[in-house]
What does this fold into?
Amino acid sequence: MNDSKWTWRSVSLISIATTLVLITGFGYAVSDVLFPKGDIPLTSLPQATPAPENGAVKSFKVVALGDSLAKGTGDNTGNGYVKNTVAGLAASGVSAELLGNMGINGLTTAGLQNKLKDAGIQYSLRQANVILLSIGGNDLFRGADLLQNGGAGNTPAGSSVGTTGETGTGTKPGTAEGKHSGTGTTPGASGEKETNDLTPESLLAALPEAAERLGKILNTISEINPAARIYYVGLYNPFGDVQEMLVPGNQAVTAWNNAAMDIINRNSKITLVPTFDLFNNHLDKYLSSDHFHPNSDGYKRIGERIVQAIQ
Amino acid sequence: MINLLPLIRNECLKIIKKKRFYVILLILIVLVPMFTYAQMRIAERSRDKFNSDWRLEIQQQITDNENSLGSDRIPEEWKSYRRIFVQQLQYYLDHNVNPNEPSGVTFTRQFLDNSVSLFIPLLIMAIASDLVSGERTTGTIKMLLTRPVRRWKVLFSKMTALLMFVSLIVLSTFIISYLISGLVFGFKGFNVPVFTGFQISGDTVDMSGVHAVPQWKYLLMQGGLIWYVSVVVALLAFMVSVLVRSTAASIVVMMAALIAGTILTNMASAWTTAKYLFMVNLGLTGYLSGTPAPIEGMSLSFSLIVLAIWAAVSVIISFAVFTKRDILN
It folds into this structure.
């Protein structure tokens, strides 16, 4: 009897105390959710770049940035050139790690300029000493999306297998400019209708502005992290297998690569990794079934190229 | 009033003597280590991948989610969920606060966020579903009702005892998950800031109300909301236990309702009137952490009112039925 008296006392006391505490918490919670008072903390991400390692122990810290190529779209192993590069570096005996892959499908130069304002992206870039960048394909071939969609519709079997489950090229958000725009509900629907035909003129029309943005992007990146080496992956012509697109595509891509080379030559920290020759005449071997992105072999080749450029 | 206290005491002792509460503690002690271990493996893996820099990890998470936003294959609701998620992550990152700072306190917070709509209600049911129907199954209800005590007093004492144990269950869930995860992740972390006050409208998050709350206070608020949910579930289970004669049936009824709730919250966004069901409204802590409500038009006050109405109706039904019904066999 004494025993149960004590259990009762402790149980009742604890439960009453707990109930009171919980009701207080409930009151706090309700007032907090219903009438939130904004108070923005003033902390921000650390701005310092980690001290560069002294030469002897060389280890590569890789960050990738850019469009669907950086992301690895089309590679059914999921590696993309980024992981291939890291693996290639590691295989050659140096330590290499991938700090992050900020590749976003359908990113254009304008979109990337916005991204570079993000504190988180800047932070990631500061941690790296090797920055891989691929951008520009979506500026140049923006009109090509439509062509893609049409082609994919005709050959459904080919279009659905190869892409790694994310997107094809057909789903470039028209508002790649950023996450804060909540309007990307019908990706790309607006931008594509205007440029139905892929003519040399339409390809080249976008070039000067986009090239200027590329220059700004490269400058911004080297301002964010002056110590890192930047490797820019040049464009290839994905439409070499379409007869009427072969020449204009080649011209546009070459013009773009020349423009990029022009910018890059002014900064010794930046290297252009050419891919045009890799894919020229080998499209059936290295292009994935969406006829736009490289397949896993293609990415492997790009990765090898970058490894050669780094070492 | 005088003879109510001994009745409540009697009911409390019955709950303890039936060892239901120990079963609940045992379930917690067995299951929480499993969740802790799983969480530990996740933490280990991301430490390997991201060089133990959470900022890189969050940035990668943001990028991955942004990528999936472009996909046509993902339903619109998931996309808006992810858009909101991305904005919140970005906010944490911009203010240099790790949303998943590994510690026993953080684990407790996340564990409770996940368990509010199913796990804790199940624990509550273990006591509540048995309270009246158990007496009928064993036949002891006749003993109870032949005493010179008004029937409503008998039921009221049972309900009070139940509410006392609801508080104890919520408390012990907190304590056990804190102690066990603390062994692995460390016992610190009460002062780590957590952001709350994300106001969600459609796809976008209004950041103007966002403020940092120390984690201990967040846990307190979370506890309050969980307690409210638990009380409502307890009262509902109590009603079912009055209405149904066998304990098994009473448990099944409540369990089915709860599980239906989790299924509905995953797919009911098209059926908007489902928001008046109690089981869809159980995730109150989501309003605190800024998770979008499962169905459009739900808000904290809406959910609180819906739950309160369900609870009030079930109390009324319980008393009406229990005081009127003939006790046969």
In short: Strands of chain B lie at 193-196, 199-201, 204-206, 211-214. The radius of gyration of chain B is 22 Å. Residues 184 and 314 of chain B are 42 Å apart (CA to CA).
